[in-house]
Specification:
- The chain is an alpha/beta fold.
- The protein contains 9 helices and 8 strands.
- 48% of the residues lie in helices and 15% in strands.
- The protein is globular, with a radius of gyration of 17 Å.
- It binds cytidine-5'-monophosphate (C5P).
- GO terms for molecular function: ATP binding; CMP kinase activity; dCMP kinase activity.
- Belongs to the cytidylate kinase family. Type 1 subfamily.
Length: 226
């Protein structure tokens, strides 16, 4: 039978959303990227002038903001539209200012509680490919298929760097690498829902593999995925 719910986890730039989108397309499922929610909260925190160390303020805001995700209405390479209190923030949440702070904010228990609840609700509807850090372990522990995508830091930094350059951002490779490294470190060492493979996840190392090659393996894992 075709898995009804699929969880994809892994470190930053391991290809989770690229693979997740393609898998969801193939199955006619909803693709849901949970990283977007933590990014949107972080953007809201910055805009509200709340300090990232102000756990109380950050947590309150996380419960107050309204995050919406819908299929893309603009063809500029986006995988979805992200709305923060009704405003299109699809690209704003990918800015370095957000990226620098997101891991700190997503380590807060109250922030995770708010986001996890929304994600579980979406997961329960089924026919979903959900990607993040704690989907197989916390958000959808009963997912029918769990994939943990991994790749070396250098390879992920190279992919990420290429992506940013293509998007026209002026970045330095060393900074991209350092940013990923720091985020992974915080994400994997936090107390609540750290980044780690679920016991029953299939770990796929994608070093040296093209998107098509990774997809082929994912489709093999998901025999009836077509
Ligand atoms: O996946 P993405 O790089 O967009 O995620 C941004 C950040 O959001 C991660 O570095 C992590 O701190 C947080 N995140 C999380 N749990 C998830 C998804 C993302 O803590 N399920």
């Amino acid at each position: 039978t075709i898995p009804n719910s699929i969880a994809i986890d892994g470190p930053a730039s391991s290809g989770k959303s690229t693979i997740g989108v393609r898998l969801a397309e193939r199955l006619g499922y909803l693709f849901f990227d949970t990283g977007i929610m933590y990014r949107a909260v972080t953007l809201a925190v910055i805009r509200a002038g709340i300090g990232v160390d102000d756990e109380e303020g950050v947590t309150q805001l996380a419960h107050r903001v309204h995050i919406d995700v819908r299929p893309p209405t603009v063809a500029d390479g986006r995988k979805e539209d992200v709305l923060l209190d009704g405003e299109d923030v699809t690209w704003a949440i990918r800015e370095p200012e957000v990226e620098k702070r997101v891991s700190k904010i997503s380590a807060y228990a109250g922030v995770r509680r708010a986001m996890t609840e929304l994600q579980r609700r979406i997961g329960k509807r089924g026919r979903v490919v959900m990607v993040g850090r704690d989907i197989g372990t916390v958000v959808m522990p009963d997912a029918d298929l769990k994939i943990f995508l991994d790749a070396s830091l250098e390879e992920r930094a190279r992919r990420r760097f290429r992506e940013l350059i293509q998007r026209g951002e002026a970045v330095r490779f060393e900074d991209v690498l350092a940013g990923l490294k720091q985020r992974d470190q915080i994400d994997s060492s936090r107390e609540i829902a750290p980044l780690k493979p679920a016991d029953d996840a299939v770990i796929l190392n994608t070093d040296g593999l093209s998107v098509e090659e990774v997809l082929k393996r994912v489709f093999e894992l998901c025999k009836d995925c077509g």
